[in-house]
Design a protein that fits this description.
Number of domains: 3
Strand content: 5-15%
Number of strands: 16
Shape: elongated
Helix content: 55-70%
Radius of gyration: 28 Å
Strand order of the largest sheet: 4-3-5-2-6
Largest sheet: 5 strands, antiparallel
Length: 567
Amino acid sequence: MQGLFQFLADNPYILLFLTVGLAVLVGKFSVKGYGLGMVAAAVVVGAALATWASTYGVKLQLDNFAKSLFYYLFMYGVGLRVGPAFFNSLKKDGITFTILAVICSFLGLGLVVLMSGPVFHLPPGAAGGVLAGSQTMSAAIGTAEMAMEQGAYKVPAGTTPEAVSAMIALGYGVTYIWGTVGIILVCKYLPRWWGVDAKKAARDYEAAHGVANVDDTGLTGYRPGGLRAYRVENPSTAGQSIAQFRSTYPQYRIVNVVRGDEVLGASTDIVLRQGDVVALGGRLEDLTSNLGLMGPELPDSKALNIALDQAEILVTEKSMDEKPLRSLAQTDFAGQLGVSRIERSGEAIPLGADTLIKRFDVLYVTGLKSAVEKAGALLGKVARQSTSTDLLTLSAGMVLGLLIGKINVPVGSFSVGLGNAGGLLLSGILVSSIVSRLRFFGSTPNAARNILEDLGLVTFIAIVGINAGATLLEQLTGSIAIKIFLAGFVASTIPPFITWAIGYHIFKINPAVLMGGVAGSRSHSGPAREAAKEIGSSVPWVGFPVGYAVSGVLYTVFGYFAMVLSQ
């Protein structure tokens, strides 16, 4: 084994990507649905390899440039993801979930500092790791190390920066498992413990807002809208213009007229004649309720050869903010397209007639090409799928973030600033917010952004684990591990209960919605998913996006403050 470890020490790139690959494999294992995931597995695998190598006298270590580079890419990617939703959180009903996220985040930070210092007197660096693990915010490891690198956290006499980094990794690894499992269990069972029927609350919300549960549904043959071809034989219909027909029957849309061999289209001044073949669109129940309105149905391929379109529409128009989906029924493109999905902060939300549209939502629509264009003009902008990334904007955003990171404000004997990581997070938020308001310059497709986040974070964490492993054996004792676990248990478990109590008793939030709100306040999608399964409804996702965006930023930054305040 010594030869193998020496080979890895001599070939750092092989060591790095071997660790990343093993982390992905280990992260796939789960027990009853619970597992480490690849990010937490990265620190475990990295530390295990380095610790094992140290028993053979081989020191595995990777340089800090690679560690910082991958972390910076990750932080910029996070900013791109949460940007629009982060600013949206400051509006109207978003304020409620923003307050809950802020309360939960500050409680988590306060308890970590209290447990790490006055209560358990944990070794230097443990507070940063406990914050990252107990709140399941792996990115906080980077800001915790940044506090040490910038001098805001003074390395105590008798220890070394390497030992502090190792303790950050240890604190993270010990507390992460309960941080993940605990918040899932708490969000899932909080209503029961409170004596609340969350299933009934979800049904009430669905009935009040016209929301159908869309979770865990398979592909079916049912479609709410349809397009059919009919021959005009009804004397009362023949002789009407398309405009007159629409005025009499607003629930239908004539989208094409074929007369003999000539395709006439659907201009509103076309007058229908006996024998014309009409392509008629509308809701399924309307198409089947007036079978004699036109005449017999035909399988006419020429009439039904209508160009359909699929697109994503980004809502940017202020006039459409807070409008229910049903308001689109009054537009001239009603019945010509369908909304299959709405995403808010990158997460799908329940879809119903009374679902409120918010600025920077993304609507996935399918329908007539002309209708899609009209909907795009009314709501904001039509986005087309793109596989290319605007590297110029990416580079400019990275440079801007690094420049912001150089701004420091003197506080006492040291200077405080966002640092490179915080600057890149802010830059990503600004860039994505600007891009969402303008004409889609600076395209960064979801797949590209996911690479920035996933590869950046898992590689950074792997390097942290590798560099920490050499000194872990010197610091790890049973009593320290138990104290770290208890500190993480308290910091992870108490804040969700308080957040729930405030949301339920003070803000009077629907319990089913609040389940997702608590999950968002912990910036973890797993609890929202489990809560939705527990009550058989997708309603918890309504409360998730705003808190998710806000707490994600706060927990990331709080790694820095956990270190500074624990001194």
